Amino acid sequence: MTQDPARLTLYGSFTSSSSYKPMLYLSLARLPFSFRTVNLKFGVQKQPDYLAINRYGQVPALRHQGLTIAQSNVILDYLARTTGHFAGTTEQDRWTAREWLSWEADAITNVAKVRHYSRFRAVDPAVMDYFRPLAEAALTFVDGSLKGRDWLVGDSPTIADIGCWGRMVFMAEGGMDIANWPNLLAWSERLRALPGFALPYDLIPKRDTEFDP
How many CB atoms lie within 10 A of CB 175? Predict the structure, then answer.
């Protein structure tokens, strides 16, 4: 099937929090797009056909208007810039949202590592002893940042919320209970109340799919 270059096409995997972030954005924004599954279990991400799309051999990747964009937070920034959804109301909000995405890639990624080492790859306990406190510290920082406010930036959800939540969504699979962070829990419930919200295993298909909301 020939893909319309004007149509958003997302490549990803249902087990990947990185894939979930742009997938959630597109669902919340009610944008039509095509999903192309990349089976990580069978190493499809390292095969030549996919490496021609994403040189890093990772998911996700986005194709749109002749462009190919990799890295989940860069994709979120691109989508916000080009579609106008969840970008932030003011110029300061837009930059602050991007700051959150940069910080997330450094800090909340530790939540994903704990989840990965808990579910997909056994490691020496010393490795978990190193990453788990970093993951919990990141969650504590976000929890504190949400004290007295509904969203991370401004008065409405932005790519900061989508990016941070999208990375920490699998925290329970890493043995981290969101109830230990009450502001995070309340925030997650606000996110869940947004039209178009869904959790990864409900949202991301296991096969190629066309989404036309």
Answer: 13
8 A C-beta contact, residue 86 and residue 164: no
Give phi and psi for 63, each to the nearest 5: -120, 135
Q: CA 34, CA 77: separation in Å to the nearest integer?
A: 19
Each residue's pLDDT expressed in tens, for the chain with a length of 213 residues: 456 778 999 999 998 999 999 999 999 999 999 999 998 888 889 999 999 999 999 999 999 999 999 999 999 999 999 999 999 999 999 999 999 999 999 999 999 999 988 888 888 889 989 999 999 999 999 999 999 999 999 999 999 999 999 999 999 999 999 999 999 999 999 999 999 999 999 999 999 999 998
Pairwise CA distance, residues 202 & 200, whole Å: 5
Question: What's the rounded Cα separation, in Å, for the pair 196 and 211?
Answer: 12
What are the phi and psi torsion angles at 52 (to 5°)?
-70, -20
Side-by-side strand order, sheet with 8-12: 67-70, 61-64, 8-12, 33-37, 209-211
Measure the CA–CA gap between 160 and 151, rounded to whole angstroms: 9
- 194 within 8 A of 24, measured Cβ to Cβ: no
